[in-house]
Task: structure prediction
Amino acid sequence: KNQVEQSPQSLIILEGKNCTLQCNYTVSPFSNLRWYKQDTGRGPVSLTIMTFSENTKSNGRYTATLDADTKQSSLHITASQLSDSASYICVVTDYNTDKLIFGTGTRLQVFP
Amino acid sequence: DSGVTQTPKHLITATGQRVTLRCSPRSGDLSVYWYQQSLDQGLQFLIQYYNGEERAKGNILERFSAQQFPDLHSELNLSSLELGDSALYFCASCYPQNCDYYEQYFGPGTRLTVT
Result:
């Protein structure tokens, strides 16, 4: 079982709508949690990095939340744009090993 | 543009062959990470180098090896290639030894196809 699970696996929304992506993890203890955006065939680009003590972090229209008690994080995208079409990857750093553990991502498609 | 460069962009080779992937980190970055991303799979951490020395190992096969040179560029060597090695290979760089709390900048990747 993957230590970082993301849902949904894929999502289709209309331009201008909001959406929320979920990340559940079992990595414990953890150092930080990141969200990356990856366009098809390109390298991931960081959206947010949160330490275990942070609850929320924003980057423009992207807002990430973290609940360390329930081991859940979400990425909320506001007023989606066509350019938001990409895979969104949740990454958790294992505190004991310093290793980054990647989720398999949520593939988001935004249609006009 | 992240500032990290990878060559080649695409590579097609046959099973049993050996290839070398190259990564140049962002100017000033000392750490280089290598990742493998297979079709429909998440990124898998392979190995990290810091200032020329191996720092951490992930799920890297014995057929794979890497090194970081004095000018800080890194090479990932893949030998005795199998069909299952077909994947996107990314490198990422950051400045400090421990990039846990810092931004990792990813390169554009090398797409390896083994036929």
